[in-house]
Amino acid sequence: MKAMILAAGKGTRVRPITYTIPKPMIPILQKPVMEFLLELLRQHGFDQIMVNVSHLAEEIESYFRDGQRFGVQLGYSFEGRIVDGNLVGEAIGSAGGMRKIQDFSPFFDDTFVVLCGDALIDLDLTAAVKWHRAKGSIATIITKPVSKEEVSSYGVVVTDDDGRVQTFQENQN
User: Fold this and answer.
1) 39, 41, 78, 81 — which has fewest CB within 10 A?
2) What's the confidence (pLDDT) of residue 94?
3) CATH domain 2-137 topology
4) For the whole model, what pTM was predicted?
5) What string of DSSP letters covers 75-114?
């Protein structure tokens, strides 16, 4: 199965670390957070993965390469341009990264998942895809309930009684 990891952001909220390390490469227990995502994806049968990169793209690409040593196949979509022979990153945001999926429409020809490259998650992706297919949805967003005290730290997804998204309320922090 196929997946996309969004890994192009500058990680401005965790500076100064991200001046030299892309956010998906920040180590947790001596390995990059994105490596945990690759392990999760592989565990659930996702073995063809596209990664969008921009800020310090070469750090991500040189570490993960083609993905073989992680048991997956990796491809990269660079967001930016070439100036005087040098790659200059110009991330286009999460929605822009998702929009670029259309550039790879033959690749994304079936159900796929999209994960943020800086997220440390333990999610049953197999169950999520099964639920998605059972609902016949165009898209499914996996959310997590949080206490009222924590709501200000997160964006809020407002759904109807059937779980269909009605509105998004962005985090204002």
Assistant:
1) 81
2) 61
3) Spore Coat Polysaccharide Biosynthesis Protein SpsA; Chain A (3.90.550)
4) 0.81
5) EEEE-EEEETTEEEE---HHHHHHHGGGGGTTTS-S-EEE
State how far the alpha carbon of 88 is from the alpha carbons of 10, 20, 27, 47, 67, in Å: 12, 15, 24, 29, 24
In the chain, helix, strand, coil percent, each to 5?
35, 25, 40
pLDDT band for position 173 (cuts 50, 70, 90): low
pLDDT of 150 over the 90 cut = no
Q: Which amino acid is it at 24?
A: P
Q: How many residues does the chain have?
A: 173
Give the start-to-end residue ranges of the domains of the chain: 2-137, 143-173
Residue 117 phi/psi, 5-degree rounding, is -65, -10
d(Cα 170, Cα 72) in Å, to the nearest integer? 33
